[in-house]
């Protein structure tokens, strides 16, 4: 490695020094971080993400990671020759599929993230919504209106769930320790059925239940972009509703923004959509003045 120049040293020192007020402000707070399947694709980025999470815990913040794994579920289903389809961005999930979903999310992916955090010097523990009754789910009802006849019909997505009750007791207990929870978005109901929950939705429900100071959604774009593809740095709840209504946000960004709105309405201080492909995106957002993604908050 080349010896840094004096200016480079000073720039590093300035960045560290700039972080101090943020460290003080957030010490003791809980941050919920949704780590998406696309964002975890690259091994070196996954390592940096794990280091960032360990750093947060080290400076007194309580990170709670909720992960996805859509692309990885897709690959496993393909290997097993099980066909899969989506309605409104949600995977239609029959009995056979939900078994694979649980295996991939609560099994391999969850343990990969736990191992990466532990490898970076942290102490992570993997949970699914089933552990400690964390996420009770119910079957998600999706209603679609036929534009021609205007008739509504209920779509059957199978074992796709929506969080019905989140019991944050285990998260509060872990916040008092040096352990970092890593949660797979799998829920259960009183009949013992297992549900596949969209990871953004699960993370939003967890963020609301713990009244997180910040809720981060790591995705594969810089944040919410305006019609000229420029990053919108800050949005009020009203702006966020407008971005959906006027078509600025489309596709996968709609449920993301809706999740952020819901989380803020339920007591999360602010939600941030940011680019998980940028190394240390989380640290930049949390500890620097400019931030990195789109912040959605009340004001
Ligand atoms: N206004 C917008 N700003 C940014 N991304 C948008 C916007 N409207 C639609 N999108 C799309 O939303 C996608 C993010 O949603 P999604 O693919 O579901 O993310 P993830 O897989 O991380 O959950 C972006 O890659 C982009 O294609
Ligand atoms: C119901 C539903 O669609 N569940 C998702 C759960 C994983 C997920 O949401 O992962 P990402 O965040 O990586 O997209 C799925 O089966 O793909």
TrEMBL record:
Pfam families in alphabetical order: AA_kinase
Name recorded for this polypeptide: Acetylglutamate kinase
Location, primary (coarse class): cytoplasm
GO CC annotation terms, alphabetical: cytoplasm
Similarity remark: Belongs to the acetylglutamate kinase family. ArgB subfamily.
Annotated GO MF terms: acetylglutamate kinase activity; ATP binding
Keywords: Amino-acid biosynthesis, Arginine biosynthesis, ATP-binding, Cytoplasm, Kinase, Nucleotide-binding, Transferase
Catalytic activity: N-acetyl-L-glutamate + ATP = N-acetyl-L-glutamyl 5-phosphate + ADP
Organism: Azospirillum lipoferum (strain 4B)
Binding sites annotated in the UniProt record for substrate: 69-70, 91, 196
GO annotation, biological process: L-arginine biosynthetic process via ornithine
Pathway: Amino-acid biosynthesis; L-arginine biosynthesis; N(2)-acetyl-L-ornithine from L-glutamate: step 2/4
Gene: argB
Enzyme Commission number(s) of this protein: 2.7.2.8
Record's keyword annotation contains Chloroplast: no
Superkingdom: Bacteria
Role according to the record: Catalyzes the ATP-dependent phosphorylation of N-acetyl-L-glutamate.
Site (Transition state stabilizer): 34, 256
Domain Aspartate/glutamate/uridylate kinase: 30-274
Class of this enzyme: transferase
Keyword Ribonucleoprotein: no
Location(s), subcellular: Cytoplasm
